Amino acid sequence: MSLHPKNRAPETMSEINSEKPDYPFVPYCPERLSEEEMLRRGKELFSELDHRRSVRSFSGDPVPRELIEQAICIASTAPSGAHRQPWQFVCVNDPETKKQIRIAAEQEERQSYEGGRMPPDWLEALAPLGTDWQKPYLEIVPWIVVVFEEVYGVTKTGEKRKNYYVRESVGIACGLFITALHRMGLATLTHTPSPMGFLSEILKRPSNERPYILFPIGYPAPDSSVPDLNRKKLDEVSIWNP
C-alpha cells in the first residue's frame, strides 16, 4: 500500500482507493427464526439484563483472565465508524497499580464531591444512590479494565489516521462489554472520575488515546446491596410513528 507524504491529502480516486483496506465480501445468511422463537429469545435476554445492577461492593475472589478476555472479544464485535475499532481495553490486576489508580481517582472524586466541582443539583441527584468520593473497591476487585478511545489512529510508519464516530463506537463496545460480563456472572460499575487524565499517565498510554470509562470487575461481595431502582417503562422510552 502506497503512503502519502505527511500533510498531503490523496489527490486522485486511485490514490484514495489505494489507502482503503481490502474487505472481500462474503455471504451472510443467518438462520431465519420463527417470530415466536425471536420473541422468546428477546424476552429471555430482557429478563436476564433487567436483573443487572451496578455494584460498588465487591469480593476479592479471583476472576480468571480468560473471562476478561472473552468479554473483550464480545465487546469488539461492536460496529464502529469505518470499521476503525477505535478502542483499547487496558486490563490491570497488579495490586500496586490498582492502589495508584484508587489514590488518584479518590483525589479527583473528593474535589468533585467536596471541592465544588459538582453543582448542587448533580449532588442532589446522586444522593439517593449513596455515592461519595471514597472508592475502596478499586483495590478490592481482582480486575480493573480501563477503556481508552483512540482519538486518531497511527499507522505503522507513524502517520496519523483519522477515526470516525469514535465516542459512539466506543460507547457501543462498552455496552456490549457490560452485557458480556453480566451474562458470565460478573459484576461491574461504570466509573468515570473527572478529569481522568491520571489514567493515561499511570497506564502509560500514548497521546492518541483518551480514557473513556473505568470498569472495576469482580463478583459482588456476599453482603452487597444495591438501590431498588425502577427502570422506565416501554411507553416512557419509545415513540411510534410520530
Series of H and E elements: HHHEHHHEEEHEHEH
CATH class of the domain at 63-220: Alpha Beta
* Proper CATH architecture of the domain at 63-220: 3-Layer(aba) Sandwich
CATH superfamily membership of the domain at 63-220 = NADH Oxidase
Q: Mean of the pLDDT scores? A: 91
Give the topology.
Blueprint lengths: L12 H6 L16 H15 L15 H11 L11 E6 L2 H20 L5 H7 L10 H4 L2 E8 L1 E3 L5 E3 L3 H18 L3 E2 L8 H6 L6 E10 L15 H4 L5
Antiparallel strand pairs: 1-2, 2-6, 3-4, 5-6
Helix pairs in contact: 3-7
Describe the structure.
The protein has a domain at 63-220: NADH Oxidase (3-Layer(aba) Sandwich), CATH 3.40.109.10. 38% of the residues lie in helices and 13% in strands. It is built from 9 helices and 6 strands. The strands form 2 sheets. Strands 1-2-6-5 form a 4-stranded antiparallel beta sheet. It has a two-stranded antiparallel ribbon with strand order 3-4. The longest helix has 20 residues, at 95-114. The protein starts with 12 loop residues before the first helix and ends in a 5-residue tail after the last helix.
